[in-house]
Amino acid sequence: MHVIHTPSEMHNWVYMLKKTGKRVGFVPTMGYLHKGHLELMKFARGHCDVLVLSIFVNPTQFAPGEDYGSYPRDLKRDLELAQWAGVDCLFLPEAADIYPAGYRTFVDVETLSEGLCGAFRPGHFRGVATVVAKLLNIVGPDEAFFGEKDAQQLVVIRRMVSDLQFPVKITGFPTVRESDGLAMSSRNVYLAADERERAVALSRALFHARDRICAGEVNVETVLEEMSAMLTGIDVEYVEVVDPESLERVSRLCGPVLIALAARVGKARLIDNITVDWSHPRPAESDEGSAAEGVPCL
User: How far is 147 from 173, CA to CA, in rounded Å?
Assistant: First the structure.
C-alpha cells in the first residue's frame, strides 16, 4: 500500500495510473475507521482497479466549540485496517497542504446546505463541499464513494459535482448498522454504556416510521409525533421528513421520502436516516446490521 502525503505526489501518482487505463476509485474519510468504512471500501474495491483512501480531519467543517481537537484519531490502526481492506493508496495530507497560508476560496452549495444539520451547524457544509472539491481535484478519481448515513452531505456533494461539472461519478453506499440497529459512526466511541443503550432509540424510531409508512400511513405529522414519543429523554435537534433530492419538507407521504434525524446523546452528536418509498410499501432497510461479516474485530 502506497502512503502519500502531498497533493502534488498524489496527483502525479493517479495521473500515471490513468495513462495505463486504470479505473480509480476514491473513498474520502476523516479516519478512525470502523466496520462501516470497511464495508464501503469493500464495495468500492469491486468497482475500480485502484482504490485510494484519504484520511483528513477537515478543520473547516467544524464550528468553534465543536470536537475538532478531540475527534477520535488512531492512525496506526487506520493504516492496518486500510491495508486489510485492500486499499492501494492512502492519502494523508496535512492541513497546511489543503489550506495553505492565504487560502480564501470556498464552495457553498446554497439551499441544500441550509436545513437539517445545516441549521444547527452553520458553515459545516461549506467546509465539507470545499474539502471534497479539493480532494476530488487532487485525486482525480473516476468514481468516489460516500456512506448514505450522511444523507444531506451526499445530496450536497452530488449537487456540487453536477453544478461544477466534475468528471467523476458519485456513488452512495447503504448505512451499516450494529446488530441492534445503531448506525455505525466514529463518534459512537463517545458513548458511555448507558448512553449507548439510549442511542438505539434513534434507529428504532426510524424503523417504526418506515413500518408505519409501509403499512399505508400518509400523514406526516402522525409519523413525526410517534417518532418524537419514542425519543423522549433524548436531546433531539431535529426529526424531519423531506424530499430525498431537494431536502424540502413534505406535507404528505406520496412517493419516496427521506426521514432524517439528529440528536445529542451525552457528548456525541449522532445522525441517522432512512429512505422510504410510500408507493412501494416494502421495507427499504433491515432493522438488523448491514452485512459486516468478514471484517476485523473492532
Answer: 5
Q: Residue 226 CB: number of other CB atoms within 10 A?
A: 14
Residue span(s) of the chain under CATH 3.30.1300.10 come to 186-277
Side-chain half-sphere exposure of 7, counting CA atoms within 13 A: 15
In the structure grid, which three cell numbers stand for residue 133, read together?
A: 472539491
**Best CATH choice for the domain 2-173 from the list 2.120.10.30, 3.90.550.10, 3.40.50.620, 3.40.50.970:** 3.40.50.620
**Tens-digit pLDDT profile for the chain (298 aa)?**
999 999 999 999 999 999 999 999 999 999 999 999 999 999 999 999 999 999 999 999 999 999 999 999 999 999 999 999 999 999 999 999 999 999 999 999 999 999 999 999 999 999 999 999 999 999 999 999 999 999 999 999 999 999 999 999 999 999 999 999 999 999 999 999 999 999 999 999 999 999 999 898 989 999 999 999 999 989 999 999 999 999 999 988 888 999 999 999 999 999 999 999 877 655 445 565 554 555 554 5
pTM above 0.85, yes or no: yes
What is the phi-psi region of residue 21: left when phi exceeds 0, alpha when psi lies from -120 to 50, beta otherwise? left
d(CA 183, CA 272) in angstroms, rounded, equals 7
Cα 235 to Cα 161, 182, 204, 208, distances in angstroms? 34, 16, 16, 19
Q: Is-catalytic flag, 2?
A: no
Q: Which member of 2, 5, 34, 37 is catalytic?
A: 37
Domain 186-277: state its class: alpha beta
Nearest CA-CA partner of 266 in 221, 234, 220: 234
Domain with CATH 3.40.50.620 in the chain: 2-173
